[in-house]
Structures are given as structure tokens and as C-alpha cells.
Amino acid sequence: MTTMYAALLRGINVGGSRKLPMADLRTLMEELGHARVRTYLQSGQAVFGADRGDEESLAAELARAIEERFGFAVDAIVRDHAYLRAVAEACPFPVAELEPRQLHVTYFSGPVTAERFAHIDPAAHLPEEFRLGDRVLYLYAPDGLGRSRLADALSRPRRTDTVIGTSRNWNTVTKLVELTEPA
Known about the structure:
Layout: E1 3-10, H1 22-31, E2 35-40, E3 45-50, H2 55-70, E4 75-80, H3 81-89, E5 103-108, E6 129-132, E7 136-140, H4 149-155, E8 165-169, H5 170-179
Antiparallel strand pairs: 1-3, 1-4, 2-3, 5-7, 5-8, 6-7
Helix pairs in contact: 3-5
């Protein structure tokens, strides 16, 4: 049975470096044997159907293929439709009352705990807020991500980190749910 997935690539086509044309990404994914391959925007989202593998093995296969073909390493996170829908439905912020630019989701490659963010004083960043979910972090940034001091604090890498994350705005979050809807 074919399962629909979204591949989230971190740090491509940003600032003129690590260029990865979406047409080339689609071709590569089709060569890997995936069906119904589509890309969304230029910032590293692809949806596809696969009847083999799991999220971790599909992400590793894609990252390896990108490095072999394009010559640079890319972090990839793959999540299935059910997970993407659950993330959207579990949003702890009032989605209907917010502008999409105010809400972001960071998808992580593995589980994260509150301990990872213990160094951040939530009160110091109000009215910005964040909440953790299942391998995700929800960020409410009323002035947008570009002006968010909390987003900056949340994204600082920790030396002991082995979990990677990549963020998407709410429009992309909901579009990926739509695009991975089973046929």
C-alpha cells in the first residue's frame, strides 16, 4: 500500500547557496522509485508516495541521494500524512484567530523534551510563546518570524544536539497536509 509523505529539507535555496532546483529534486525522487512526486515552493518541501520504508529510512535515502547527486549535505525529515494532519490539529494556539505569518512549526528529526529549552525564559519573550508537541515545536510570533527574538533563542544549536529541526510557516503546514492527502 502506498503511503503519502512530505520531505522537509533544511537550508536549501537560501541566500544563494546550496541550490537545489525543484525540478531536479522531483526527478531524483522519481528515480528513487517514489510516486506522485510534487514539490511545494522553492524552499525544500516535496510530497511523494512510497510503498516501502519508514520515515527515517526514507529521509536517510533522500539525504544520501541529494549529497551524491548535488555535492552537498542536506538534512531531511520525512513525515507521513497522518502525522502531518495530527500536528496541524494539535496546534495549541488559536489558529482561526491568527494570521498564518504569526504561527510556525519546527519539525524535529526525533523527540525533544522541555529540558532542551530550559535555558530560555518564556516571560522574557512575551507576547511570543512556544509549546512542544510530538517531535514538533509550535511558535507564536505576533510580529512574524523575521522579528522574533524567541525564534532566534530557540534555534541556537546546542553542542550535545543530535536532533535536527526545520521550521515552516502555518500556510506551509496546512498545505503539506492537503498535498499528502491519500488519493
